[in-house]
Design a protein that fits this description.
About 45% of the residues lie in helices and about 15% in strands. α17 links the parallel β15 and β16. α2 packs parallel to α4, α3 runs parallel beside α5 and α17 packs across α18. The protein is globular, with a radius of gyration of 25 Å.
Length: about 525
């Protein structure tokens, strides 16, 4: 899957979602032109234009009122989601102008409400609900069209392309397990609720996919990062909760709650309870060069930020002439939770830097940066007696520094071995690694001179399961953690499995497509093993 990592890693998650939604628009128009689906092409295009235009314009107005920078891609995404939620309105349907105005006005109102929810339904600068879900929920509640939110992508003809595009989004965000839990739960709940209604078995089994927009909902709405809890187990619980409300009929005061938009709103409330319940504002303190192509940036949080060692934060950096990678990006936190007065991030500029990184490095002390979310499950086992192995590729050392600083700051004693892959002269955090005193095994073209006392040079490679076992005799008993570019993580995880390491947890730095020394060596080792077996 390394080719998919390279493709999806070159653009932001928001840009990928936008591209996939636009691809769905093209697909629906093509199917409409061929008569496969009932929605006319003019209806699709007109509804999409109204939804996107009013969402974008209202978001721009609210951003000006609240004196913040509008996130254009987010507005486009919300508008396109509303297109696929509401039944397209055909201006040439023969309906009276009053009816058309009310129908298109309802969609426009949904876009305005969706934008408003980002600013008004927020607590301490953090919005609580998925904007498209709020817009759809409110409009269907207050308009005379009870079935206005039709979720019309639920057809057999659109299912294949929805699955492919949805998989791309879920793979990029690594939320496929959450989506799978939701889809499986909806499948079995549908069979349980509707299985005895006399319908043919095949029809009942296909119901979640051809009547409900289950796949679209899971990939493009349930996986929305800003309204998601930070930990994986919390995300899976949310998926089950949303699946229940999504599928099982409930009626409250004559109002049917069995709608996707209401189910997602309930899930958003659950996520908000567990997530960072306030906006994150960081005062820039300064930057420090770690290596010729890597930096550490330090910030002071205006309010305490709750996170665990090994987690990440998404930063928003508004800047002019943003490139394809957008205004937001995830960075692993290098500091430890015990360092309450500072949050540090490590970043690499070895490749052609994005406009966001350029803007980030151009910050002046005192400037304010917004964090949009904190999350991740790259956490250590609670059993402090469990020996650990940290395998880092290049700037992938960053989350391990958070772990090591937390271990040191908390006064804990843990058995940790660090296996560090880097190009010659590109040893980020080398001085601090030496000070912390944990054994460091280095794989690189050349050994640093002088070699620190707690470091061991393993040579140029290639890395093999035999070399791992030789350098770390008790490797089978260790819990292994791997962090670095996606290709690096995939290869090293396989090598550790061959070395009979039972527990391997991974983290990856999407967007870094160049190969580290260890990646090249590991791939060479894999090729050599393949050739030997043949």
């Amino acid at each position: 899957m390394q080719w998919l990592d390279r493709i999806t890693g070159t653009i932001t998650m928001y840009r990928l979602v936008l591209i996939c939604l636009l691809a769905l628009v093209v697909e629906t128009v093509l199917l409409s032109l061929t008569g496969v689906i009932s929605q006319p092409p003019l209806a699709i295009l007109a509804t999409g234009l109204v939804a996107v235009a009013f969402t974008y314009a209202s978001n721009w107005v609210f951003a000006k009122i609240f004196r913040v920078t509008p996130h254009t891609e987010s507005s486009f995404i919300t508008g396109l989601l509303l297109l696929f939620i509401f039944e397209p309105v055909n201006p040439l349907s023969g309906a009276t102008s009053g009816v058309l105005l009310m129908q298109l006005g309802g969609i426009a109102l949904a876009g305005v409400i969706a934008s408003a929810s980002k600013y008004l339904l927020a607590l301490r600068g953090r919005h609580i609900f998925n904007p498209a879900a709020v817009g759809a929920f409110v409009v269907t509640l207050i308009t005379p069209f009870g079935d206005f939110a039709a979720w019309w992508l639920a057809t057999a003809w659109l299912l294949p392309v929805t699955i492919v595009l949805g998989f791309a989004v879920l793979y990029r965000t690594r939320r496929y397990l959450m989506a799978i839990v939701f889809v499986v739960a909806v499948f079995f709940l549908t069979f349980w609720v509707y299985g005895g209604n006399g319908a043919p078995l095949a029809q009942t089994l296909l119901e979640p996919f051809t009547t409900f927009s289950t796949i679209f909902f899971a990939a493009f709405m349930l996986s929305e990062p800003l309204t998601m809890p930070p930990r994986r187990w919390q995300q899976l619980v949310e998926a089950l909760l949303v699946a229940i409300v999504f599928t099982v009929p409930f009626t409250v005061g004559g109002f049917s709650t069995t709608t996707p938009q209401f189910a997602l709103i309930i899930g958003n409330v659950f996520a908000f309870i567990f997530g960072q319940r306030r906006g994150i504002r960081l005062d820039f303190l300064g930057k420090k060069r770690l290596t010729p192509t890597s930096w550490e940036l330090s910030f002071r949080p205006q309010r305490p930020v709750i996170f665990k060692a090994g987690q990440y934060m998404e930063l928003t950096i508004p800047h002019a002439k943003a490139d394809i990678r957008g205004l937001r990006r995830i960075f692993s936190i290098a500091s430890a939770p015990v360092e309450t007065e500072v949050i540090r991030f490590g970043l690499n500029t070895a490749e052609r830097s994005s406009s966001l990184k350029t803007a980030l490095l151009a910050l002046e002390p005192g400037e304010i940066v917004d964090g949009t979310s904190v999350g991740g499950d790259f956490l250590l086992p609670k059993d402090v007696s469990r020996p650990l192995l940290f395998v880092a590729g290049g700037i992938g050392i960053t989350p391990f520094m958070s772990h090591l600083e937390q271990i040191s700051g908390a006064g804990a004693a843990r058995d940790v071995v660090v296996l560090y892959s880097a190009s010659s002269g590109e040893l980020a955090y080398s001085e601090r690694l030496t000070e912390l005193g944990h054994p460091v095994l280095l794989l690189a073209p050349a050994a640093p001179k002088p070699l620190p006392a707690n470091w061991t040079y393993l040579g140029r490679g290639p890395l093999t399961p035999e070399l791992i076992a030789s350098a770390i005799p008790d490797v089978k008993s260790r819990a292994a953690y791997v962090s670095g570019p996606p290709a690096f993580v995939h290869v090293v995880r396989g090598l550790l499995r061959k070395a009979q390491v039972a527990s391997v947890k991974t983290d990856f730095f999407s967007g870094y497509t160049s190969k580290s020394t260890l990646t090249r060596h590991a791939e060479a080792s894999a090729e050599r093993a393949k050739a030997t077996s043949q």
